[in-house]
Design brief:
By secondary structure, the protein is mainly alpha-helical. Helix content is 78%, strand content 0%. It contains twelve helices and no strands. α9 runs antiparallel to α10.
Length: 295
């Protein structure tokens, strides 16, 4: 419980550091790179776990404690201390009330549904593979493929058409890719047949993570990014609580094809919802106005 609490306390400030220190136009890429760093760490952690597991599983906890201590030292030595910003004359500082912001609540609702789907690809995938007669350990290979895709697909976000997409359009496209990947899982029967859907799914996941956190940061009033990101982070807590129950029940009662098909359909529904209810980034709106004026 203490370990989980420490992990959750780390997330909002780490995300806020990125959101508040990176220029607005670069936030999507910055959060995507942060996601890639987590994916690379996940690959390294898997290899380390496989290595240490041959000796004694207790060494995994020693490795975790050592890496956390090193991380704390790096934060203390490398990251700059917080400094008060210059006074902003004439600017009204808005109150920070994330749960009263309708724009944030719409992102929180769709984000919770996305997190619920995402958790199924982690928690339920090994059970689904075993139900199909494949080794549950094959899920580790698929996790490695998705993590590698998250790292290697970063250049896609630098393409001109990707940067011109509004937040609703980008999130809708991302969920279409997620649906395609999950539909591929529904049709796959062998490990190689699961690999292509895993790659497609990962590209969609990459687009969601970068856009969602950048949008939440953009919506926050001055100084409110940590609280907005913390409120948005509750979507993962809700999903982590519901995913094991919902996923296992659906898998047991309806089977693997129905599980992945239902999740693919939910992704398509979320794609439509993003086009209808997800707000545009305030910065994107300002840039569009400037572009129209300059034209």
């Amino acid at each position: 419980m203490l370990l989980g609490l420490a992990f959750e306390l780390y997330e909002p400030p780490s995300q806020a550091i990125i959101g508040e220190s990176v220029p607005e136009r670069q936030r999507v890429r910055a959060f995507s790179l942060f996601s890639a760093a987590l994916a690379a760490g996940g690959m390294g952690a898997g290899l380390l776990a496989a290595l240490l597991g041959h000796w004694d599983l207790r060494w995994l906890f020693v490795a975790d404690a050592t890496s956390c201590t090193l991380c704390a030292l790096i934060i203390g030595l490398v990251l700059p201390r917080d400094r008060p910003g210059p006074p902003e004359a004439g600017r009204v500082r808005l109150p920070v009330r994330p749960l009263r912001d309708r724009a944030l609540l719409s992102i929180l609702a769709t984000g919770t549904a996305y997190a619920l789907i995402n958790q199924q690809t982690v928690m339920t995938l090994p059970l689904a593979l075993a139900r199909q007669g494949l080794p549950a350990a094959d899920a580790g290979l698929l996790f490695t493929a998705t993590a590698a895709t998250t790292v290697l697909a970063q250049p896609l976000l630098r393409l001109p058409w990707a940067s011109r997409l509004t937040a609703p359009a980008a999130l809708a496209l991302a969920h279409v890719l997620l649906a395609m990947g999950l539909a591929g899982y529904a049709l796959a029967r062998t490990l190689p047949e699961h690999l292509v859907p895993a790659v497609v799914w990962s590209v969609g996941d990459l687009m969601v993570m970068g856009r969602a956190y950048a949008l939440v940061t953009d919506l926050a009033p001055a100084g409110g990014a940590p609280r907005y990101l913390a409120a948005f982070g509750t979507s993962w807590g809700v999903a982590a609580t519901l995913a094991p129950v919902l996923g296992t029940q659906l898998l047991a009662r309806a089977g693997t094809t129905a599980l992945w098909s239902a999740l693919a359909a939910l992704c398509l529904l979320l794609a439509v919802l993003h086009l209808r209810v997800t707000p545009r980034s305030p910065g994107q709106g300002r840039r569009s106005v400037r572009a129209g004026c300059s034209g």
